[in-house]
Write a structure and sequence with these properties.
Chain A: GO terms for molecular function: GTP binding. The complex is a heterodimer of chains A (294) and B (361). Chain A is α/β, with parallel strands linked by helices and 294 residues long. Chain A is 34% helix and 16% strand. Chain B has helices spanning 23-34, 50-58, 71-76, 116-133, 162-171, 189-205, 222-233, 273-282, 284-349; strands at 36-43, 82-90, 93-101, 148-153, 177-181, 237-238, 245-248, 251-258, 261-264. The longest helix of chain B has 66 residues, at 284-349. The chains are: A alpha/beta (294), B alpha/beta (361).
Chain lengths: 294, 361
């Protein structure tokens, strides 16, 4: 799922990540399409293949997030959506006649795009991440990082990391879920040095030093997306796809989903949903559940 | 007309020459002596490079000890108005520049009341000027009216945001708006053109009145006309600000150093900084005139029209004031009575210097 205000390059980045047009870009919108009045949830599914491995990728975009004058509680539709997916899975799981492979529509990863102001996080960013880091894996990403010089970038990252820590926001990979020492050291390094990743996305190719590279062409130079000296896109890609993809799914299933499930069963007196006392109707899916943890 | 006089006159020997052609020079000398004042307001979300741009424009450091608050602090903050004045001088011409900053704009989660503070500030300046102008001693009227407002648009969006539209519509009848696209080094040339066009379309669609540069007079030279045409075609200006000197192509330029190249602030192919500066300098006078002739007059007529209705409420206020004054009088009288009683006790007890107690009514 990709979140953040419009124009931060979310669609371009997702396209670049998966090297295919999986996301419809806002610039190709019809001129009549305005910034939506409420936050919409748009899910588009694709099947992509590499090396014989097929993957069904669903990209959920949230146009309208953070664009209004009054953005209070604009995270509620998103929280509701995430919980609805958990609910769907739960219902399938407690069925008497279960499907062999339960269709998994749960959100495994949420890329949160931070605006590269160079100053600090915005109050909206803080509020959103506070609410949602408890229900989904959040990976903060600094968008359009070509607007910051190297010093500004490292200062900003430090500042963001500190703010997240001070406000108790646990982004993925969460410290408490590190399984062994090897994981811990690896994740510590990522948490304290690389994250949040400062990225630049592009789906256009240019010729640089005889090679064709993805990049952005400006009058003062070409920004190469996959050049580690220019931006950290390659790190993000490796992190999300090449090394931690399975872990993202596992943490979602073993931790976030289980937390949701435990709360739902608790609310229902230890019984699975659908079986109330004397066949009473179950309460509807709550919009903002508070997890029992912490 | 003797040769000893300074050669300010052209063709002094022409018959029929009176000499009032020298008026502009006199005006020029007096203006230079008086100095100029200009108030510029900058509005935009935090982190758009407003302060850096202002410092770059005027080659000064308006914010020497700046602490940038964190996000948690910003949740509590409301929009504030900070005015800093600096006197700069160039070749004997003095400019008293006031920059009005609006920290906190656009930061809150709910920005509904964002611009109330700003609008009341602008109105307050108009009100003060109106008051001074209607006063008895008009010798030293200080003009703190906002002559121009740079509205910073985010380069990250796809055009105007709802907040941008709402704000500009609220102030376009009060101040000259100059929209500026900030941090333009994040856009490629094509993206820049697209964004500018989109912004202009949306401005027209919402009937927002931004400041329009006046066309060059027909008697100006071609260069000036061409310059004006270029300026008009580049609105809104997309700018990059910086006061750091970077070494590029063998010389030191102001710019930003990236791993992929150097963005030069004063290079017209990189951004419109020079155009913005030129516009501001060559049209400072016009900006002041439009503020005086259009926005201020609007405000004044509205105010005086309202003034008729306001008298009624003032009458009622007068009654209220009378009542209040009477209550105060009663309180004072009670206080005097108490003090007199005290004095009497003292006089009975000790020396009689209680009589020297001065009553202040």
């Amino acid at each position: 799922m990709s979140k953040g205000q419009s124009g931060l390059g979310k669609s371009t980045l997702v396209n670049t990540l998966f090297k295919s047009q999986v996301s419809r870009k806002a610039s190709s919108w019809n001129r009549d399409e305005k910034i939506p009045k409420t936050v919409e949830i748009k899910a588009i599914g694709h099947v992509i293949e590499e090396g014989g491995v097929k993957m069904k990728l669903t990209v959920i975009d949230t146009p309208g997030f953070g664009d209004q004058i009054n953005n209070e509680n604009c995270w509620e539709p998103i929280e509701k959506y995430i919980n609805e997916q958990y609910e769907k899975f739960l219902k399938e799981e407690v069925n008497i006649a279960r499907k062999k492979r339960i269709p998994d529509t749960r959100v495994h990863c949420c890329l949160y795009f931070i605006s590269p102001t160079g100053h600090s996080l915005r109050p909206l960013d803080l509020e959103f991440m506070k609410h949602l880091s408890k229900v989904v894996n959040i990976i903060p990403v600094i968008a359009k990082a070509d607007t910051m010089t190297l010093e500004e970038k490292s200062e900003f990252k430090q500042r963001v990391r500190k703010e997240l820590e001070v406000n108790g926001i646990e982004f993925y990979p969460q410290k408490e879920f590190d399984e062994d020492l090897e994981d811990k050291t690896e994740n510590d390094k990522i948490r304290q040095e690389s994250m949040p990743f400062a990225v630049v996305g592009s789906d256009k190719e240019y010729q640089v030093n005889g090679k064709r590279v993805l990049g952005r062409k400006t009058p003062w130079g070409i920004i190469e997306v996959e050049n580690l000296n220019h931006c950290e896109f390659a790190l993000l890609r490796d992190f999300v796809i090449r090394t931690h993809l399975q872990d993202l799914k596992e943490v979602t299933h073993n931790i976030h989903y289980e937390t949701y499930r435990a709360k739902r069963l608790n609310d229902n007196g230890g019984l699975p949903p659908g079986e109330g006392l004397l066949g009473t109707v179950l309460p509807p899916v709550p919009a903002t559940p508070c997890p029992t943890a912490e | 007309m003797s040769k000893q006089q300074p050669t300010q006159f052209v063709n002094p020997e022409t018959p029929g020459y009176v000499g009032f052609a020298n008026l502009p020079n006199q005006v020029h000398r007096k203006s230079v002596k008086k100095g100029f004042e200009f108030t510029l307001m900058v509005v935009g979300e935090s982190g758009l490079g407003k302060s850096t741009l202002i410092n770059s424009l005027f080659l000064t450091d308006l914010y020497p000890e700046r602490i940038i608050p964190g996000a948690a602090e910003k949740i509590e903050r409301t929009v504030q108005i900070e005015a800093s004045t600096v006197e700069i001088e160039e070749r004997g011409v003095k400019l008293r520049l006031t920059v009005v900053d609006t920290p906190g704009y656009g930061d809150a989660i709910n920005c509904r009341d964002c611009f109330k503070t700003i609008i009341s500030y602008i109105d307050e300046q108009f009100e003060r000027y109106l008051h001074d102008e209607s006063g008895l001693n008009r010798r030293h009227i200080v003009d703190n009216r906002v002559h121009c407002c740079f509205y910073f648009l985010s380069p990250f969006g796809h055009g105007l945001k709802p907040l941008d539209v709402a704000f500009m519509k609220a102030i376009h009848n009060k101040v000259n708006i100059v929209p500026v696209i900030a941090k333009a080094d994040t856009l490629t040339l094509k993206e820049r053109e697209r964004l500018k066009k989109r912004i202009l379309d949306e401005i027209e669609e919402h009937n927002i009145k931004i400041y329009h540069l006046p066309d060059a007079e027909s008697d100006e030279d071609e260069d000036f006309k061409e310059q004006t045409r270029l300026l008009k075609a580049s609105i809104p200006f997309s700018v990059v600000g910086s006061n750091q000197l970077i070494e590029a192509k063998g010389k030191k330029v102001r710019g930003r150093l990236y791993p992929w190249g150097v963005v030069e602030v004063e290079n017209p192919e990189h951004n419109d900084f020079l155009k913005l500066r030129t516009m501001l300098i060559t049209h400072m006078q016009d900006l002041q005139e439009v503020t005086q002739d259009l926005h201020y007059e609007n405000f004044r007529s509205e105010r005086l029209k309202r003034g008729g209705r306001k008298v009624e409420s003032e009458d009622m206020n007068k009654d209220q004031i009378l009542l209040e004054k009477e209550a105060e009088l009663r309180r004072m009288q009670e206080m005097i009575a108490r003090m007199q009683a005290q004095m009497q006790m003292q006089m009975q007890g000790g020396d009689g210097d209680g009589g020297a107690l001065g009553h202040h009514v």
